Structure formats: C-alpha cells, structure tokens
Fold:
Amino acid sequence: ADEARHVARTLLEAFADADAVVSPSGSCVGMIRHYYPALFAGDPALAEEARRLAEKTYELSQFLVRRLQKVDFGGRFPHRVTFHPSCHGSRLLGVREEPLELLRHVRDLELVDLPYARDCCGFGGTFSVKMSEISSAMAEEKAENVLGSGADVLVSTDMGCLMNIGGTLSRRGARVRVMHLAELLAEAAGLTEEVTA
Structure:
C-alpha cells in the first residue's frame, strides 16, 4: 500500500489541473476510481484530491460517448470484427455499450457476436502469473470463442486482455488481428497506416 500511495501521489500531482483524464485501460481507470480514495483514507486532504481525480477520470470509450457525446469519427474499416469486453471495463466501470456504439458507427465494419463474450480471458494482472494453469485454460477457451466468431479482428479496451488472448491466438497460428479500440478508430479514420496480421 505504501508503494501504491507513492505512485498514486505522482498521478494526483500530475493531473491536478486537468479538466479530464482519459485512459485506454479500464483497469487503470478502475484503480483510480475505486481504490485511490481508499489509499488515502487516513489523510483527508489527499483523500479529497483522490476523489476529485476519480470523478474526472474516464476510460476512452466512456469519455468519447458519455462526456463528448460523439460516436461517429468517420472512416471505414472493411473487416469482420468481434469485441471482447474486459472485466474491469464492463464490471468495475459499467462500460458495456460505449465501445460497441463506436464500432457500430465505423463504415463497412461488420460487427459479429463473440460467443461467451462476458467470460474472463484469464489475464487479471498477477492472476495470470499466480494461477497460470487456470489463466491459460481461460485464455484457450476465449481464443476458441474468438475463432468460433469467424472474425478477422478481435478488439478490446484493455491491453492486458489483448496481450493474453493475442498471445494464445498467435501460439495457435491463428490469423486473427488483435487491436485496441483506439487503434481501430485511428486506422479507420486514416490516422495510421494499416498493419496486416
């Protein structure tokens, strides 16, 4: 907890004057929103700073859809895409429809359902190290469902999930491209060059 407080104080100082803090990771936002205030419970001034930071911190899709109220960023992405909802994003933050809403507004994108989408991919930070056999089995099951969807591209909003599922797909020799939602939106809008799997 002492080390976490040290890191958290750095963020409190760095973002004190920001109007909003946006992260491409539900896990990071979940930490700030749900655990930072508790980290500083013994220090009222820092607890208040943590509360203020928590209130203005958003996961990327949540910020775009809820705060900016913008869902169409133009562009096209002519691929068959499936979406994995991360546990921290969907369960901890309640971010469920926002990423899908953004994907639905990308032209030529075919959004297909991921079987058992809400099932965890097995990453869970240190869980994947401490319980590696269970984590691997969960990732294998998730990879099987991704392949079963028939998608060319797997999208999510958490890099931990993408690394875990992507690594499993790669070891299987699967030709499914794995992307963060921000990457897909940028590529669709022509802000980056397409990278083939």
